[in-house]
Amino acid sequence: MRSLINHYYKIKRMRPFGAILEIHGVVFIIIGLCVLINWNQPLTGLAMAVAYFGIIFVHECGHAFFAKRFGYAVTNIQLSFMHGICVYDDDDLNEWNEVVIAWGGVLAQLAVVVLVVLLGFIPGTDAIPAINDAMGVLGPLNLFIAFINLIPVSPLDGATAWRIVPLLWDRWRPRRKTKKRSPFKVVK
Predict the structure, then answer these.
(1) If exposure means fewest CB atoms within 10 Å of the residue's CB, which of 22, 27, 40, 145 is most exposed?
(2) What DSSP element (H or E) covers 171?
(3) Which of the four pLDDT bands, split at 50, 70 and 90, describes residue 35?
(4) Are 40 and 59 in contact (CB under 8 A)?
């Protein structure tokens, strides 16, 4: 029999971007611990844990969105304690697509940060402790996780994502050269 912590559980009714969603057993343990630690306010613990794993889920959905846009089949999204994995068919993956897919996770996280900031302007949202704590996770902590993920070290997305700089430079440079023509017309 498999132990709870060494097993991914498939969520059958949820298929983001056609992928099979798998959640590692330790995620359920962490959510339970968050509820137990906040036993005076269990909804706050639950909201914070769900918000944290929601960040990982949104990040992986960002990768899946761009992979799907480029025509790759997204097969699995796996969520674990510290990270997630988006598995897609990359048989004919070119460098540009790989880089954009790597940025997809961080862009999805940044969209959540913008949404949280906008929701912060709605009066009364800070009156409910569970919502207030979840917004703290989805805002500042989410932004921190996004920046950490952009560190250019493997296995973080930054190792691939920052290759966008030379790719953009190569795309921009040929256009720049064609614009530099002599302002004088040569007449023979």
Answers:
(1) 40
(2) helix 164-179
(3) confident
(4) no
